[in-house]
Automatic annotation (TrEMBL):
InterPro entries in the cross-refs: Ald_Oxase/Xan_DH_a/b (IPR000674), AldOxase/xan_DH_MoCoBD1 (IPR008274), AldOxase/xan_DH_MoCoBD2 (IPR046867), AldOxase/xan_DH_Mopterin-bd_sf (IPR037165), N-heterocyclic_Hydroxylase (IPR052516), OxRdtase_Mopterin-bd_su_IorB (IPR012368), TAT_signal (IPR006311)
PROSITE patterns, sorted: TAT (PS51318)
Residues in Aldehyde oxidase/xanthine dehydrogenase a/b hammerhead domain copies: 207-285
Superkingdom classification of source: Bacteria
PANTHER family: ALDEHYDE DEHYDROGENASE
Protein name: Xanthine dehydrogenase family protein molybdopterin-binding subunit
Organism ancestry: Bacteria, Pseudomonadati, Pseudomonadota, Gammaproteobacteria, Pseudomonadales
Region (Disordered): 297-317
Pfam family, one: MoCoBD_2
Cited Gene3D superfamilies: Aldehyde oxidase/xanthine dehydrogenase, a/b hammerhead, Aldehyde oxidase/xanthine dehydrogenase, molybdopterin binding domain
Bias-annotated ranges (Basic and acidic residues): 300-314
Length: 734
């Protein structure tokens, strides 16, 4: 269409509406486009909104829990729109099918997938918007769009002249056709992607401005706490609330599915009343295992069941039969808590036949199912307001805290904030599974000829499918929720994706060994488990890279050169391995009393090699330096990559040195940071990160820093002491 300048000014002068640009993004079919000429209000199923007063809003479909989506994904839009990222205002997406993660068919943030899955569609969104705006301006100037350009939120005409702001163009741009295959800006023209430009949320977080779940305040809000059974699987038999109800501020005491709720005017009133509550539990179906029994059952299962073959190559049994020697080792890893600094919490408000929930959740569509499950509402009656998250690490993929808050709110008919104490958060977590690994390798002629890895432990999907399956079919009646979960498990690997949580990082074994036999023996002692930062890569990384170190020692070879000799067919592995060794000055002397260890691991598509320098003094392990080389494909914000790798290193070292959730008679023995400690500032090592400059598609960085640092530290301790540690956490004295 064509419109002269005078007509354009008539149309756009004084308008207050906005163009909602919602484009044909993969996995987002059905989002309407349109211009609201009356109010310009944002439509909740839109990705991008440009208003007549030159504001730009971006609907962020992946939550921000410190990993940088708020900045990184906004940068993709900004690059193609030709505006500084800081000029765009991100807003968290509501729970809606349009915002599902295409890898999981669920609206969740996890698996280091946010950037990888958004890289193409969000750039297409920004590019399409830019093209429509340019076409609108070109029609005003009666010139070719190819002769126009954009800068700083304005369209520039050819040969100088007055430019037009995006805000003045929105109404006319809405009438332009949506490009089917918009050309994206070439790499050489990028102004924001690949640059260190800080974080968009840094200033706000430094001043306490962002609202986390625990910060939510509503008029007339009351507080709730829940007394849960000390052993998983126990149920309330009876409870005595006669004294509790007389205490100041107490509004109600009642049973919910997960325990007994106490509601009061203030949080500390509720907590104090909880301490006066007496509950008798029915423990007939309660968990009763000890940590020793868990590992005993794992070894028994491994003896009796060789497990399902997950990867087979060559003839491992034949390699063992003809081997000069066979090397064997077993590795054990304990249960681990998530220990997010913001404990579990949610605020819920039931009114007018619907419920609103404000929560720090990694999976808002599962939150809708959680709220519907414990009320008489359907998922369509549930609105989830996602807040900033004070840590996630996979814990907030499970919405048990939303279930509790919703059940309480449904009864009290007031806005209710439910908060878990640190002790409750530690003792009622869904843990990183305890795992057993049995390794065997055949050696002949100074070469590794065969590799066997038997992984023993549970699958996380068994525990997660409860709400995940209904979330994929939100139209299903609630009486089918549990059936959908059972069907999902039965169809795993057939009609539903295979659960790789136990085997990931093991089946991708990269070293050039001709005969491979990798198996999983599925056994579950009944301890609740869930995703934990880097999931199966965390425990398989320790087993694989520690055993590789053992083989190097067995063959009398340098651990770095040994790996290098088996990886030269994998150029990206080789690149990070060489870089890490060079950065750490591998082969040069270390200060007296110290030693180095090395590990190499690929997780979530990202290649990471790390060298740890450590010492043992006065009965304490001290990590002095961790050098990391990282290939995560195209980098959007190098500072965030470094931050995330460094954070992963600290997280992994915390697990390696202190992480140990133990059970006695079914009860968790740890409760707070005094007996489940985190690495403190004065204990943190120097972390050096070097990023490979790559034009490959971007991969994740939130988790890949975790898996290699644990075996690298263990390997350093072996180099220092000559004693191999095969059970975590690592000890100063074995």
């Amino acid at each position: 269409m064509s419109m002269n300048r005078r007509d354009f000014l008539k149309v756009t002068a004084g308008t207050s509406g906005g163009l909602v640009l919602s484009l044909s993004l993969p996995g987002c079919a059905g989002i309407p486009t349109g211009y609201d000429e009356h109010s310009g209000n944002w439509k909740p199923d839109a990705w991008l909104e440009l208003t007549a007063d030159d504001r730009i809003y971006f609907t962020l479909a992946r939550v921000e829990m410190g990993q940088g989506t708020y900045t990184g994904l906004t940068t993709l839009i900004a690059e193609e729109l030709g505006v500084p990222p800081a000029s765009i205002q991100p807003r968290f997406a509501p729970a809606a099918t349009e915002y599902r993660n295409p890898l999981y068919n669920l609206q969740l943030t996890g698996g280091s997938t946010s950037l990888a899955t958004s890289w193409q569609p969000l750039r297409v969104a920004g590019a399409s918007a830019r093209i429509m705006l340019v076409s609108a301006a070109a029609s005003v100037w009666e010139v070719s769009p190819d002769d126009c350009s954009v800068a700083g939120g304005r369209v520039l005409p050819p040969n100088g002249g007055d430019s037009l702001s995006y805000g003045r163009l929105v109404e006319l741009a809405a009438k332009q056709p949506v490009p089917e295959d918009p050309a994206l800006k070439p790499r050489k023209e990028w102004k924001y992607i690949g640059k260190n430009r800080g974080r968009l949320d840094a200033e706000a977080k430094s001043t306490g401005a962002p609202i986390y779940g625990i910060d939510v305040e509503l008029e007339g809000m009351v507080y709730a706490v829940v007394t849960r059974p000390p052993r998983h699987g126990a149920r309330v038999r009876t409870f005595d609330d006669s004294d509790v109800r007389k205490m100041p501020g107490v509004l109600d005491v009642f049973e919910i599915e997960r325990g007994v709720a106490v509601v009061a005017d203030k949080y500390w009133q509720a907590r104090k009343a909880q301490n006066a509550l007496t509950v008798e539990w029915d423990e007939s179906e309660a968990l009763s295992v000890s940590s020793e029994q868990v590992f005993s059952s794992y070894h028994k299962a491994a003896d009796e069941d060789p497990g399902e073959s997950e990867r087979s190559q060559g003839d491992f049994d034949g390699a063992v039969g003809s081997a000069e020697r066979v090397v064997e080792a077993s590795y054990e890893q304990p249960y681990l808590a998530h220990a997010t600094l913001e404990p579990m919490n949610a605020t819920a408000w039931y009114r007018d036949g619907a419920i609103e929930v404000w929560a720090p959740t990694q999976a808002p569509d599962l939150g809708r199912i959680a709220a519907a499950r414990v009320t008489d509402l359907s998922p369509d009656d549930v609105t989830i307001h996602t807040t900033f998250l004070g840590g996630g690490f996979g814990r907030r993929l499970t919405n048990d805290y939303i279930e509790e808050a919703s059940a309480v709110a449904f009864r009290v008919r007031k806005p209710v904030k439910l908060i878990w104490s640190r002790e409750e958060d530690t003792r009622h977590d869904l843990y990183r599974p305890a795992m057993l690994h049995r390794m065997k390798a055949s050696v002949s002629g100074g070469q590794v000829t065969g590799w066997h890895h038997q992984i023993v432990g549970p699958q996380i999907l068994d525990w997660y499918v409860r709400n995940a399956a209904p979330a994929q079919y939100p139209w299903a009646p609630k009486f089918l929720y549990d059936t959908l979960g059972r069907v999902g498990l039965m169809a795993e690997g057939i009609a539903t994706p295979k659960d790789h949580s136990a085997i990931e990082g093991a089946i991708e074994y990269p070293y050039l060994v001709p005969n491979l036999d990798i198996r999983h023996t599925h056994t579950d002692p009944g301890v609740p488990v869930s995703w934990w930062r880097s999931v199966g890569f965390s425990h398989n990384g320790f087993a694989v890279e520690t055993f590789m170190d053992e083989l190097a020692s067995e063959l009398g070879q340098d651990p770095y050169q040994f790996r290098r000799s088996l990886i030269d067919h994998e150029p990206r592995h080789l690149e990070v391995l060489d870089r890490a060794a060079r950065l750490a000055r591998w082969g040069e002397p270390v200060p007296e009393g110290r030693a180095r260890g090395i590990a190499l691991f690929r997780s979530f598509g990202t290649y990471v090699a790390q060298v740890v320098e450590a010492s043992v003094k006065a009965g304490e392990i001290r990590v002095h330096q961790v050098v990391c080389a990282v290939d995560c494909g195209q980098v959007v914000n190098p500072d965030i990559v470094r931050d995330q790798i460094e954070g992963g290193v600290i997280f992994g070292l915390t697990a390696a040195l202190y992480g140990d959730i133990t059970f006695k008679d079914g009860q968790v023995q740890q409760s707070n940071f005094h007996d489940y400690p985190l690495m403190r500032h004065d204990q943190r090592p120097e972390v050096v990160v070097e990023i490979v400059d790559s034009n490959q598609a971007p991969t994740g960085v939130g988790e890949p820093g975790v898996p290699p640092v644990i075996p690298a530290l263990g390997n350093a301790l072996f180099a220092l002491t000559g004693q191999r540690q095969r059970r975590l956490p690592l000890k100063a004295q074995v």
